[in-house]
Amino acid sequence: MTTVHETEPTGERASTSRPPAGSGRFWTLRRQDTLSGWLFVLPQALGFLAFVLYPLIAVVYYSFHTSNVLSGVTKYAGTRNYSQLVHDPATPSVARATVLFCIGLVVINIALAMLLAVLLNQRLRGTTVFRTLFFSPVVVSLVAWTITWNFLLQNNGGINSMLHVVGIEGPNWLRGDNSALVSVVIVQVFKNVGLNMVLFLAALQGVPRSLLEAAEIDGAGAWRRFRSVVLPLISPTTLLTTIVTISGSLQVFAQIQILTEGGPNNRTNVLVYFFYQQAFDNHDFGYGSAVAVVLFAIILVLTLVQWRLRKKWVFYES
Amino acid sequence: MSLETAARRPVTLRDAAAAPRTPGRRPGSRWRKPLLYAAMVVLAIPFVFPTWWMITSSLLPENEVLSYPPKLLPLHPQWSNYKTAFANYPLAHQYLNSLYIALLVTAGTMLVASLSGYAFARIPFPGNKVLFPLILSGLLIPTEVTVIPLFKMVDRLGLTNTHWPLIVIPILGAPSVLGTFVMRQFFLAIPDELEDAGRMDGLGRFGLYFRVALPLARPALASVAIFTFLNSWNMYLEPLVYETDKRNYTLPVALTQYTDAYGSHLWNIQLAASVTTVVPVLVVFIAAQRHFVEGLAQTGLKG
């Protein structure tokens, strides 16, 4: 072994960061890189093991067990938690709410984001101001935003009184069987559509002007140019925003809890809220874990589908 | 979610008005501009109105918040609502909780993410190619999936109802992975020549990271800081799960507590408290909106 001494090794690749070591023979560049590489990623790697990988394995383990909160005893339960989920009378409503929320959110969000991006991409003065306005809800605290909409959507709240001024009787938004889900979707769309809008705007700015001019010379109208030139060119962004919005739609928890608590009649009881009810309202960690595993499986499938789609659907990707 | 898709590259935006103009008149151009402006103004209403309504209603007396006709402007602003929000509830305490937790999480994430981002981008160590995609998979996992085991872990350590889980788990767990990704993408783009010059000057790995790469990475660090701070400031499920004492709450959970003894909302007080959490962030956003928009668009990937 080499002896440890204070002087720095000579040579242009010398290192001052690693612990004092002997001359260059043992501490080859490669060994230095191995040591420093692992030291640099150590916090993240340990954190990943403790706070991502371990809980992921544990949640699958718990989903095959029942645990009694009072006694703390955990017992093997086979697939009982999963069959409970299949037979739970709430499951059809939860599935329906999750899917409808997701579809509603994705369709409205993507369409509105595209529309706003197209408007902002017109060569007009002051579009930066509008961009800031459309984006501002993204930085507003989700809970504060939801509380404000909760206030606005009350039966005698701001929206209905304004509708009353123009002679319309609005529904009790958050208590109606259908209006509740619509309301939750709308609140979420305006909160985060600004993110997708900016992604579309960046994509639109990447569409070569020459192509649009060529299409115009060929006699294509505005709509035709959008559909046949712009839309194919921005399809990678459309795919990305769709996937991200779907995965985000599976994670609306605070909004549901504040606005409807899953009601009325489970109409807005989406999967993450149902998970919270089972795990932390009913303190059933076994059943809650099974729901969490299902949530994870859905995300995993979506990711795989996305990898597949990327090859087929996207026309152009630089 | 998707790890190598187009929008993960830095998003940069031009001011559309500054784009070169094509010569030639479009048909109907006399009505085009006013119509476009009208469309944008109408569309802006649902984005701006709630925040406006939050602020104005926070200044109304209790008997006017749900009155008809709606009060668009408080003629006699009742500033005492703000005093009530702070005097009758531990809001000041909760405010400090949120602030110090978000600052610690931001600083910790910037350190952890820049270190591992640097190693994944620039140090060829065995395991690099395997470890990076593995850690990146943490981006896919929703908070809810891992929260039960994490709660049990925190409970076993006797750390429920403390701020430890709100600080340590985001810095080392899944939330910081996005920061690592952003930092790695940035460090990949640094030309080798710069590091070679640093080596000539006798810098080791840590020196290259700290003296050469990190100063160049200020824009990426700013993005990481912005979205990390906002995520911590806005987290809701975690404090709900880990904290039991009101004084330990952070702001989002604290905001839901403004009800009277019968459980009905004290709207004006609740909205006043909400305003105090929203306005500082909005002010910073308007001052540095380009950083926010571009930083969040490339990274803040929540639907």
Automatic annotation (TrEMBL), chain A:
Biased composition (Basic and acidic residues): 1-11
Pfam family, one: BPD_transp_1
Swiss-Prot/TrEMBL GO biological process terms: transmembrane transport
Keyword Cell membrane annotated: yes
InterPro entries linked to this entry: ABC_transporter_permease, MetI-like, MetI-like_sf
Residues that span the membrane, as ranges: 38-64, 97-120, 132-152, 180-204, 229-254, 285-305
Assigned keywords, A-Z: Cell membrane, Membrane, Transmembrane, Transmembrane helix, Transport
Domain of life per record: Bacteria
Membrane-protein topology: Multi-pass membrane protein
Record has Transmembrane as a keyword: yes
Domain ABC transmembrane type-1: 95-306
GO cellular component: plasma membrane
PROSITE patterns: ABC_TM1
Chain segments carrying region Disordered: 1-24
Location(s) in or outside the cell: Cell membrane
Similarity annotation: Belongs to the binding-protein-dependent transport system permease family.
Protein name listed in UniProt: Carbohydrate ABC transporter membrane protein 1, CUT1 family
TrEMBL record, chain B:
Domain ABC transmembrane type-1: 95-288
Any one GO cellular component localisation term in the record: plasma membrane
Keywords tagged on the record: Cell membrane, Membrane, Transmembrane, Transmembrane helix, Transport
Gene Ontology BP terms: transmembrane transport
Region feature (Disordered): 1-28
SUPFAM superfamilies, A to Z: MetI-like (SSF161098)
PROSITE patterns: ABC_TM1
Pfam families for the chain: BPD_transp_1
InterPro entries on file: MetI-like, MetI-like_sf
Localisation per UniProt entry: Cell membrane
Entry membrane topology: Multi-pass membrane protein
Entry's transmembrane regions: 35-55, 99-121, 130-151, 163-187, 208-230, 267-288
CDD domains (UniProt xref): TM_PBP2
PANTHER family in the record: ABC TRANSPORTER PERMEASE PROTEIN MG189-RELATED, ABC TRANSPORTER PERMEASE PROTEIN MG189-RELATED-RELATED
Family per similarity comment: Belongs to the binding-protein-dependent transport system permease family.
Protein name: Carbohydrate ABC transporter membrane protein 2, CUT1 family
Provenance organism: Actinacidiphila cocklensis
Lineage, top ranks: Bacteria, Bacillati, Actinomycetota, Actinomycetes, Kitasatosporales
